[in-house]
Specification:
Elements: H1 9-18, E1 20-23, H2 29-46, H3 71-74, E2 80-84, E3 104-109, H4 111-114, H5 138-144, E4 150-158, E5 168-171, E6 179-180, E7 185-190, E8 201-203, E9 215-219, E10 226-230, E11 260-262, E12 269-273, E13 278-280, E14 291-298, E15 303-304, E16 318-319
Antiparallel strand pairs: 1-12, 2-3, 3-4, 4-14, 4-16, 5-13, 6-15, 7-12, 7-14, 8-11, 8-13, 9-10
């Protein structure tokens, strides 16, 4: 397909049916190499333990209540900060027992603006040159999915370190980046081959139509952190009519038999509907699983909640259409 045309009708239909879409070769090998080099440079040169609060990244405990909530995390929406793997620490001493470059879980959350290498991914098609020539532009993809005013937010590198890269339990992105009605779509790029061994994504196909956004991760009223609360707002996008379909109960979302693994090659783009249930297992292999991801939300006709953990910078979330 021509870059300026976005997705084909069959790709849009597949996304609407399954709630996710795998697009091979969205990044050329030269772009993948440039992004991996920059990731390693960030880990080696920009990340320092001096003055770092040693913030561990947690997506949720067994009860769904444990989440990062300190100022270092909550203030990262317009910065580039480093969050550590839980298993990079010695449980008896509480000290890191991995080299700092092998201890980072993720880097976020404003790479698409502050980092000139990663900013290439969301640049206008006419800006793709050099290592990024041939990169599939994201704005036409967003237009294909029906966005009128797509806004880019929460860009991050997830490292999934060898042997310690943590599992991510079943979740929906709209829980964390809630708009009313829900509108989030994840753009997830593999910068290394992702396999069952190193913790690839798994999806519950079609669950975006049957899994309501039951809960929200919201800032506490006293601004001391975040907590999971029942969602008081709309649970599905307006274009999804559940009708007589059976909805997935909240206590059945971890049914392993429903999930399909999504092994992909480096350079692949995975689009993920905000209501889709997806997860990844722990990386027990000796190979890392570096990916880059950001999300889009609708800036026209959807309200971004002021209690979401991530709040917009003074200039607002980044427009994909200019």
């Amino acid at each position: 397909m021509a870059a300026q045309d976005g997705l084909t009708p069959s790709q849009v239909a597949a996304f609407e049916q399954d709630g996710y879409l795998i697009i091979p070769d969205a990044l050329p090998p030269s772009a993948v190499s440039a992004l991996v080099r920059e990731t390693h440079r960030l880990l080696k040169e920009d990340f320092t333990l001096q003055g770092h609060p040693l913030t561990k990244f947690q997506t949720g405990g067994d009860d769904g209540q444990e989440h990062v909530g300190d100022d270092y995390f909550l203030g990262s929406g317009d910065k580039v900060r480093f969050f550590l793997e839980e298993d990079a620490f010695d449980p008896t001493t509480g000290l890191l027992d991995k080299p700092k470059e092998r201890a980072v879980n993720k880097i976020g959350h404003y790479l698409h603006v502050l980092n000139p290498v990663f900013a290439n991914v969301t640049a206008a098609a006419t800006s793709h040159s050099g290592d990024f020539a041939g990169t599939l532009p994201v704005a036409p993809i967003a237009r294909s999915l029906g966005f009128r005013d797509p806004r880019c937010l929460q860009s991050m590198i997830i490292c999934k370190q060898p042997e310690i890269g943590g599992a991510v339990p079943p979740h929906q992105d709209s829980t964390f980046l809630y708009t009313d009605p829900p509108s989030a779509v994840g753009f997830w790029y593999a910068l290394e081959d992702t396999t069952m061994a190193n913790g690839c994504l798994s999806f519950w196909p079609g669950s975006h139509k049957t899994a309501p956004v039951y809960q929200r991760l919201m800032r506490r009223d006293d601004q001391t952190g975040t907590h999971i609360v029942p969602n008081p707002g709309t649970q599905f996008p307006h274009n999804i009519q559940t009708g007589t379909m059976d909805l997935i109960p909240a206590d059945k979302q971890d049914d392993a038999s429903q999930y399909v693994p999504g092994e992909v090659k480096a350079g692949s783009l995975v689009l993920i509907h905000g209501n889709l249930l997806h997860k990844s297992e722990k990386n027990l292999s000796d190979k890392s699983r570096i990916i880059y991801t950001f999300h889009t939300i609708e800036g026209e006709g959807a309200t971004y909640d002021g209690k979401n953990w991530l709040q917009p910078p003074a200039s607002g979330f980044t427009k994909l259409y200019v």
